[in-house]
Automatic annotation (TrEMBL):
PROSITE patterns: RIESKE (PS51296). The lineage of its organism: Bacteria, Bacillati, Chloroflexota, Anaerolineae, Anaerolineales. It comes from the Bacteria. It comes from Leptolinea tardivitalis. InterPro entries: Rieske_2Fe-2S (IPR017941), Rieske_2Fe-2S_sf (IPR036922). Its cofactor is [2Fe-2S] cluster. It holds the Pfam family Rieske. This is Rieske domain-containing protein.
Length: 105
């Protein structure tokens, strides 16, 4: 069976200044969008270790560090790169059209 996915409008490009982040919720799923050096990336905002608010964490290169216990995730892919998290967070495809940001869900 084909899975239904679609791009949803979530914000204006100007809502996420360079190296800032924006928190949104889609279908009750918390998502954080990072603007890293002018490129946008969206990942789930729930740490797979113990549900910490990973999007609040410090950014180190392309990684975000969960503020609860220090797990790291690659912002580009959602991949868990450091314990105590071993499962990846979801990563969402983004497209920008006419200054509007869309996320594929
Ligand atoms: S909740 Fe994120 S490292 Fe524990």
């Amino acid at each position: 069976m084909e899975e239904k996915t679609e791009f949803l409008y979530v914000a204006q490009e100007q809502d996420i200044p360079l190296n800032e982040r924006l928190f949104i919720e889609i279908n009750e799923q918390p998502i954080v969008i990072f603007n890293l050096g002018g490129k946008l990336f969206a990942i789930g905002d729930v740490c797979t270790h113990d549900n910490g608010p990973v999007g609040d964490g410090q950014v180190d290169g392309y990684e975000v560090v969960c503020p609860r216990h220090g797990a790291r995730f690659d912002i580009r892919s959602g991949k868990a790169t450091k314990s105590p998290a071993f499962r990846d967070v979801p990563s969402y495809q983004i497209k920008v059209e006419d200054g509007k940001i869309f996320i594929k869900i």
